[in-house]
Amino acid sequence: MDLNNNQHNSVNDSSGLADDQSRPELTTPSERIHQHHLPAQDTAQSQPRRRRHRKKGNNDTANQHGPIVHREPRQAAATNNQQQPVTDGQSSHRDKLTAAAHSSAELPQNDLPSEPPRSKRSQNHQQPRKQTAADTTNWRLRKLPNEPGTTQAPGSAMRAVTPAKPLHGSQSPAPRKVFAEHYPPKKVTALMDAGLLVRGVMRINPKNPTDAYVSLDESPSPLAQRKNPELQGYVVGNSSDIYICGKDSRNRAINNDVVAVKLLTRKAGRQLYKANRMGYDKRMDKITAQRRARLDRMADNVKNVNAEAASDDAAEPQTSNDSGARMPELFGVVVAIITPNADRVFVGTLSNRLPAHRDSRASDNIPLDMLQFKPLDPAVPLMLVPKDSVPEIPHHKDICAVRMELWPETSKYPMATYLKCLGQRGSVEIETELILEENGVSTEPFPPTVLRSLPKTPWKIPATELKSRTDLRTACIFTIDPPTARDLDDAVSCQLLPNGNVLIGVHIADVSFFVRPHTALDRMAKQRATTTYMVQRAYPMLPAVLCEDLCSLNPGVDRLAFSVMWEIEPESATVCSTWFGRTVISSACKLSYDDAQHVIDGGHLADSLACFEHTGVRVAPASQQRRSDIEASVLWFFRLSKIMRKRRFDEGALSLHSVRLSFDLDDNGQPIGCRTYDIKDSNRLIEEFMLLANMSVAARIEACFPDAALLRRHSPPLERRLDEVCRQLSHSGIDIDTQSAGAISRSIQDISDPAIRYTVEEMLISPMQRAAYFSTHAVADRNDYRHYALNAPLYTHFTSPIRRYADVVVHRTLEASLAVYGNHVAAEHPLLPPYFSPYFPQTAAAGSLTTSVNDARAVLIPKPEAIAGIAHQCNLRKDAAKKAQEASSTLFLVNYLTAAALRMDTPGVITQAIVTKVKENGISFVTPMFGVDGIIYMDRMADRKGQVVSTDGRKWKLNMWSVKPASVTLVWKAVPQPSTNPKASDSEHQLANMLSALVIDDTRHSVVDLGCNGTTETITQTLRIFDKISVCIIPETSPPSVTVKLAMPYINN
Questions:
Q1: Contact criterion met (CB below 8 Å) for 622 and 589
Q2: Which residues contact 503 (CB under 8 A, 6 or more apart)?
Q3: By three-state DSSP, how is residue 742 classified?
Q4: pTM score > 0.90 for this model?
Q5: In 667-802, beta strands by DSSP E
Q6: What is the pLDDT of residues 624-666, one digit of tens each?
Q7: What is the rounded CA–CA span in Å between residue 723 and residue 433?
Q8: Predicted confidence band of residue 73 (pLDDT cuts 50, 70, 90)
């Protein structure tokens, strides 16, 4: 098991005194630092007079100074904390971090009550304090019955650890443990085998960092379900996560750590939950009071008709995971970090101001040569950075990058190493670098060790590969990709058969031939796991010589591939037989989606399009017949894809699309155009056959290696969130059938209005969970392999190995299955037709049925536990890449809107929005033009004078509002406004005083001059779901974001 125990070892690395029994009195400061590492028993022996101060009744010392923790046997602990070897360059820095961590050991916990300062007399005559609810519910009081791997004396399973008292003379007190020690690896393994621990992935709520959750990444064993009845019937990805309450229970774990969790009884968990939520509820009460104060500061004539109801709703805490609405079902505590998140680099600000503490004395224990690092991500803890590791102290507004290092149990904050200063926020370059660092996207050039793993260029296919593969170079094969694509990893082919059927082929670049297991290139590809696409450039998973040349299926060159071919009956598009093989292909041409769409619309390939044809001996320019074959193939693909798509949705598939923006950039990389990305028939053409290839390969590798296949599953939506959306829609007369993905899809298709259909899809995206990779050995029930949105029993990723490491692993598994079982699986499988078409390539399939399963596994397939680790890494990197891509899109949208507003001399952009939700404290919306969504809160709908953004030159003042179920009524008063100089008014309210506004719609960018009619009128406006409103999008550059204001009156553009 890949358990990281560096945090454990770091406490003892620099001491070197563990085996000394006779110790001289420490007098120098450096020696006193080492005293922190002395075991409590040895310290007590050197000070026998301390026993005279103990009195009867002082056995509650542990409760007075800290929680009761489970202490390991001394011999086992010593074995686990052996000093780790470090290089000379690392030794001094690690020792400095360790010493600094111990010097801050006296910091009190946020989650534990702090003690007031005591006099010397009170220190010697302490009175036992009363036990609080927090003590009685402390998770460390729960005893694990008959824990294997422990050797404790009878009756001593739980021992109170008394913090060391101050030593006499010049000696310093031993460090107090702020967190419980992590279980050693052997103990974790033993307890997991015994069913007393479970493992999962940590997720911290960024809006309330004291709330955390652990999602199990493998099905609980039958023994674990017997030991913990709460886990009975647990389904990975479709059951309640384990709630981790408070930083103490999280025990130094951060986001995406794989952790070992001990479950709490429901009674203890609920008590701990209530105690921990008190602080969060107080913060929410403060926010509610601030909202009420803002409402009171608005104009006196702005009245809320049902203010009491609105206040009650505003008091309800709103969290990202809706945890405040109900009590969690499962509670637990982290006892060990099995696999720490590999991405330990964070961005934030550095300052000389050290963290504030309840106990003023605690700040004196923090070394003065430390800087405080405050991450931008609120889910990441504060860190301490040595000053001497920072070449120049940056400005307090500069964004810096650090790497989290040691976090022993004796330190409240982790130590960090300074990496670099990015600068102050605002420019596209700095914001892009910040996004990349924050999401762990590697931008460094590939190191020499990786480059040495690449083949030398010019490269050609070895003769041995040509003999062992099926030669398809003379077939009509071509690619369809975006016009700017350079990593062409998929191609297609189509051939009419004498029996009237069609032979369809999908050919994927054989990246696994170049990325061999256990090489430096393989380790780097696994670390990056995916290509990250930003607006202005891509950051590849593989070196350019592979992804743009040797692996890319460029036209007119020979390339290695994995091919999946089907014999398909054309009328119903039914698959009759399937073939898998390792092939050599030569692409005839590179079509863009526009080229394919032009052929679908009845046109022909442009004469300027380069096409080639392999004659069997050499590559030559394509004949007119080959061009005609390509056009006919495109039409066949389009015809079959329409049938396949219709059948897929009829059988229960679901597709939800959100707005995707595309930008036009100038020579300096600045956005000059913004538009939504349109899905064409040519996109769907390719999509259907890529989906079919992924499903076919998933069935193949699962049939051959049922316990070692890397698949992809999609869990059903979150039931409570889905029900909430459906209740909102029902108020508008739209009923959504949620029995299955197909039922939801049919409900959406029944909506005739395209704008309403789009809005419903946007609303239904929120309850949906993300798809995830998994290892088949980790999920016990095969029914849980399903992909909910595709309504597919088995699915994987096979078609993009140039940009996804998961596909490379799947290719290796497919190669192993070909070596053992040949091109066709003879065994019956419900998803693989038993019929073998005689029209498939007739090859000897070298290696078929000659390699044993064990040999194939040893060479090409990792162990099942290793596949689970690969799945976890691929999930993390895919989510991070998606987050980076979305942040990049937001950055360029903000810059585009800022430039547009500056050109028109307006502070914001007026556009259309659609209401998606109405609540007592605000309305939710989405803008179809830009894909911006959010909430306009009632207390922020108008400014302090009750005014909102005006689109016609008058002052629009909010007079009163009334909220009813699924609707809000707003009463407006419009007052004529004389023309004034916009530059003389406050920047936040410039639009309210202007006679023109920048209006952006689907067809034009223009300034609309709106005259003032010079009259005062009162308008009553009732808003419901799907109603259209005008909003003003005001871009903010630091950090990149948008502020959305309500605009009046509504402009129908």
A1: yes
A2: 493, 494, 495, 496, 497, 565, 566, 567, 568, 837, 839, 840
A3: helix
A4: no
A5: 671-676, 710-713, 772-775
A6: 999 999 999 999 999 999 999 999 999 999 998 888 899 999 9
A7: 40
A8: very low
